[in-house]
């Protein structure tokens, strides 16, 4: 195409996109586009540039390549991996929004304590029931005993004894070393005792981290991690995390304490 | 590990603590922007989630490099909100034309438009300053005579020729960009 033809073609594209063409010329031009893929590509690209960079509203033109692009993106987003990313983001949004509400609430901390308590009852009606649930279901003193099961040369019973004697700091030290040997058959049990020891020492963050390790391990008992995290969140009265963890446990009937959590959900 | 990678990896590997950190660090700024521009908190949440999905998409599918996670996230959210405001306006004036779409379709549409916007603006930035000014003025007024005064051109033909040249250059740049072909595949 020479320069003069290019100019003429551009004039046509302009009047088509600006909607200043007569109906008959428009029909002719659309027919021309049908038979000339390059022309159609140029028109669509210019329409798109005009809309995107210069914020113009351009009349709708059938654009099969755009529809195809859209279909490809949609297909990707429908893949399980992307659905999972989306769920994770939504979960974080819900936890954040719960925390954020609480932060706003505590902003009024200077108000007299009695008023705070009153508002707390109004805003967080679940907190009292969290305490009740925690008292009813917490089973830190019923961690499975492995004294009988462990092999004679296994050190595990020493740690278990420290925990039972409430020597939690020493138990933490013991189990931190113990779980480094991940080949042990009692690796998951070590994590359970370590998490519980951290919890008893008041280090909830470390306890939750430890149960995260358990959850992501390939242990048969890994879903126990969710249960102990749930107990910690109940203790912390963290409403959004309690709810999120309950949903996780209820997502699979094989999860540890599935039926208990089902009952718990009804109570909430 | 760079911060950008830390955040992107967390989104892909479901590191819930870091994803929460993304919300704590960056969401308030986005929410404040949307709320001060005719939006509500639900809009802000939606925009923010779409932007995170966009980042995952381009990181996974297009292997893009990001210089500043925060700046990029903010730009994506701003673009999306601007587009939504424009669409809302069009819904009011042309009610019924746009069918109600499900969430995945809406997010897909946003990803497509954001990719195009990045492709066009990146190449628009490569034009000479004069070309940028000429095209901006032309597309804002759609009138060649306004270019005569602004750029002291002798005739409408000169102005028309200049717009033609600059637009042709922009189209060439876009068509020559490897992302143009990826978008079209």
Q: How would you briefly describe this protein structure?
A:
With 268 residues, chain A is mostly helical. Chain A has helices at residues 3-17, 23-35, 37-52, 64-77, 80-107, 113-123, 126-137, 156-164, 168-178, 187-200, 204-215, 224-236, 239-250, 258-267.
Write the layout of secondary structure elements.
The complex is a heterodimer of chains A (268) and B (185).
Chain A: H1 3-17, H2 23-35, H3 37-52, H4 64-77, H5 80-107, H6 113-123, H7 126-137, H8 156-164, H9 168-178, H10 187-200, H11 204-215, H12 224-236, H13 239-250, H14 258-267
Helix pairs in contact in A: 2-3, 5-13, 8-9, 9-10, 10-11, 10-12, 11-12, 12-13, 13-14
Chain B: H1 3-13, H2 16-35, H3 41-61, H4 69-93, H5 103-124, H6 129-141, H7 145-151, H8 156-176, H9 178-184
Task: Give an overview of the whole structure.
The complex is a heterodimer of chains A (268) and B (185). Chain A has helices spanning 3-17, 23-35, 37-52, 64-77, 80-107, 113-123, 126-137, 156-164, 168-178, 187-200, 204-215, 224-236, 239-250, 258-267. Chain A contains 14 helices and no strands. By secondary structure, chain B is mainly α. Chain B has two domains: 1-101, Rna Polymerase Sigma Factor, Chain: A (Orthogonal Bundle), CATH 1.10.1740; 126-185, no CATH class. In chain B, helix 3 crosses helix 4 (69-93) and helix 6 (129-141) crosses helix 8 (156-176). Chain B starts with a helix and ends with a helix. The relative contact order of chain B is 0.08. Chains A and B meet through helix 1, helix 3, helix 4 and helix 5 of A and helix 2, helix 3, helix 5, helix 6 and helix 8 of B.
């Amino acid at each position: 195409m020479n320069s003069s033809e290019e100019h003429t073609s551009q004039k046509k594209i302009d009047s088509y996109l600006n909607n200043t063409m007569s109906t008959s010329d428009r029909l002719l031009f659309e027919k021309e586009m049908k038979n000339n893929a390059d022309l159609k590509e140029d028109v669509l690209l210019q329409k798109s540039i005009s809309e995107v960079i210069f914020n113009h509203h351009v009349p709708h033109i059938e654009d099969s390549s755009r529809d195809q692009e859209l279909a490809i993106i949609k297909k990707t987003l429908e893949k399980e991996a992307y659905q999972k990313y989306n769920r994770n983001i939504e979960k974080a949004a819900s936890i954040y929004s719960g925390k954020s509400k609480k932060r706003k609430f505590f902003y009024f901390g200077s108000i007299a304590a009695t008023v705070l308590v009153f508002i707390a009852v109004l805003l967080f009606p679940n907190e009292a029931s969290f305490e009740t649930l925690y008292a009813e279901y917490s089973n830190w003193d019923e961690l499975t005993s492995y004294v009988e099961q462990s092999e004679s040369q296994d050190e595990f019973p020493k740690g278990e004894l420290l925990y039972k004697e409430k020597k939690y700091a020493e138990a933490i030290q013991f189990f931190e070393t113990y779980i480094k040997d991940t080949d042990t058959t009692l690796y998951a049990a070590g994590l359970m005792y370590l998490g519980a020891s951290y919890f008893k020492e008041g280090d909830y963050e470390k306890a939750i981290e430890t149960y995260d390790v358990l959850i992501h391990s390939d242990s048969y008992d890994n879903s126990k991690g969710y249960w102990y995290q749930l107990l910690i969140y109940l203790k912390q009265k963290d409403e959004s995390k309690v709810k999120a963890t309950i949903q996780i446990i209820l997502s699979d009937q094989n999860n540890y304490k599935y039926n208990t959590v089902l009952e718990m959900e009804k109570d909430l | 590990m760079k911060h950008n990678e830390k955040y992107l990896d967390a989104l892909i590997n479901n590191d819930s603590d870091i994803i929460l950190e993304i919300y704590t660090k960056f969401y308030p700024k986005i929410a404040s922007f949307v709320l001060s521009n005719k939006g509500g908190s639900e809009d802000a949440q939606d925009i923010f989630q779409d932007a995170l999905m966009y980042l995952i998409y381009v990181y996974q599918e297009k292997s893009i490099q990001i210089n500043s996670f925060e700046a990029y996230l903010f730009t994506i959210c701003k673009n999306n909100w601007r587009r939504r405001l424009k669409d809302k306006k069009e819904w009011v004036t042309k009610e019924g034309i746009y069918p109600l779409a499900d969430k995945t379709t809406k997010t897909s549409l946003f990803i497509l438009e954001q990719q195009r916007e990045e492709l066009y603006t990146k190449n628009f930035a490569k034009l000479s300053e004069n070309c940028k000014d000429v095209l901006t003025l032309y597309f804002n007024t759609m009138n060649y005579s306004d270019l005569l005064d602004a750029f002291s051109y002798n005739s409408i033909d000169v102005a028309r020729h200049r717009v033609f040249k600059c637009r042709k250059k922009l189209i060439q740049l876009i068509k020559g960009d490897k992302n143009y072909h990826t978008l079209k595949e």
